[in-house]
Amino acid sequence: MALISKHLIGLQGVPREDIQLILDTAVTFREVLERPIKKVPTLQGKTIVNLFYENSTRTRISFELAEKRLSADSINFSTSTSSVTKGESFKDTIRNIEAMKVDMVVVRHAAAGTPFYLTKICNANIINAGDGIHEHPTQALLDMYSIREKLGKIAGLKVCIVGDIAHSRVAFSNIYGLQSMGAEVSVCGPSTMIPRFIQDLGVKVIYNIDEAIQENDVLNILRIQLERKAREYFPSIREYAKYFGITSERLEKNGKDILLMHPGPINRGVEISSEVADGKHQIILNQVTNGVAIRMAVLYLLGTLN
Amino acid sequence: MDIKAKLVDQTGMQRIITRFAHEILERNKGAKNLVLIGMRTRGEFLANRIFKNITEIEGTKLPIGVLDVTLYRDDFRTLIKQPQVSVSNITFDINEKNVILIDDVLYTGRTVRAALNALMEFGRPATIQLCVLVDRGHRELPIKADYIGKNIPTSINEEVKVKMDEVDSEDAIYLMDSKEE
Lengths: 306, 181
Description:
The complex is a heterodimer of chains A (306) and B (181).
Chain A: H1 16-32, E1 47-52, H2 58-69, E2 73-78, H3 90-99, E3 104-109, H4 114-121, E4 125-131, H5 137-151, E5 158-162, H6 169-180, E6 184-188, E7 204-206, H7 209-215, E8 218-221, H8 237-244, H9 248-253, E9 259-261, H10 274-277, H11 284-303
Helix pairs in contact in A: 1-5, 1-11, 2-11, 5-6, 5-11
Chain B: E1 2-8, H1 10-27, E2 34-39, H2 42-58, E3 64-67, E4 98-106, H3 110-120, E5 127-135, E6 147-151, E7 158-163, H4 165-168, E8 172-177
Parallel strand pairs in B: 2-3, 2-4, 4-5, 5-6
Antiparallel strand pairs in B: 1-8, 7-8
Helix pairs in contact in B: 1-2
C-alpha cells in the first residue's frame, strides 16, 4: 500500500483509498503518542525543512513534533530571520536549501500554488501546510480523523462548515476530503463570505445557523480571520457573533447532540462562545492531538516511499 | 510457490504450544512477573494460545500484548513495497517484568532486533525471552531463541509458511519452494 503521489498538495482529486490509508496509518501513530517514549526511528537520516512564509503556531509545532517523533532531522525556516529580508528570490532560496540535501519540504505560504510550484523546481517531497486560500490538506485530514474517532465513520454524515468560506483553505480541503469519503457537506455563513458557484462543488449553502445546527451531525466552525480584513464582509463583529456565533443558548434551543470542531486559533465570543469552546460538544483539543498523528502518517507515507 | 512438505499438523502445533507453556513456567519458576507479547500477525495468535494454556495450568491470567515492529524496520531504503503499519497494544507496564516475546518464524533475526528496540521504548524489562514456533536458521544477527517449537534447517530457496486457524483456517507448518519465476 502506498500513496499515488509523492507530494501532498491538496485533497482535490485525491482518491478515497489514499485518504483512507492516511487515516488508518494515523491510528498507529496515535498509539505511539500514548507511549512513555513517544518516538520511533522510522525516518532516521531524513532531513525535513519547515518553510513557513506565514505565521503559524499549531501547524508548525505540530509538524515539528511529528518530524521529531519520527526521528527525522528538521530545520525551521521563517522569513523574518532569513535572507528573504535581503531580497533573495523565492526560487533561489529553495534552490539553496535543496542544495543542502533535504528530503522533504513542509511549506506554508500566503500565495496559493506555492507548494505546487515547489514540486516543479525541486526534487524533495512537498507537503502543503497551507497556501493562501487554496488548501490546507493536513488540517482537513485531522478533522476527518477526529470525526471518525468520535463518531466511528465519515460516510453518510452531514457536515457543515461555518464561517468565512471564501477565504478559507481549511474549508476547501474539508469539502474535497469529506466528499471523497462519502459525507454530505454544506456551508453556512454570511452571504458575503460564501463564494459564488460553490454549489458547483456539490455543496449545499445554508444562510441560517439554526438551520445548520438542526440539519447536521458535525459543525466545523472556522475562525473569523480578522487579520485578513474579515471585518469588511459584515457590519460588526458583534453582529457576526449574534447571527453566526455558536452559543450554548443556541445549541439548547435546537436541542441536538452535535459534534463541534474548530481548527483554531479560536476567537472566543465571536464564532464560538467561551462556554461552548470548553463545553461537552467540542473536540478542539482532540483535533490538535490528532494533528500530530496525522502529520506523522503523512510524513511516514511520503518519506518511506522509494 | 509450491508446497514441498507439511512439517507440522494441527495436533503437532497443539503439542508444541502446550510444551511452550510448560517450558516457560518451568524456566521462570511459575507465572509470577511474566508477561506475553506477540508480534503481529501470527505471533499474536500464538501468544493467545500460550496464554490459554498457561491459564489452564496455573490458573493465573498473564498480561498479554501485541507488538507491531514496522516502524523499527531497517529496510525502508531498499523496500519496493511500502509496508502497512499497524497498532501495538501493550496496555501494561513492562518494567522489571519477564517478557516472553512470541513470533512464528525466526529467520534473519532482523524482526527480533526491531522488536527489541521497540520493547525498550515501552520500558526496561527484567528479561526478554524469545519464543518461536520455527527456527529456520540463516541468522544475520547474533540472536538466539529461548523456546523453539521446531528446528527446521532450510535452504535460502525455501520458505517456511506457518498457518494458523485464526487467519488461515488451518493449523500447520509447511515447507515451500520459493524459486523466483
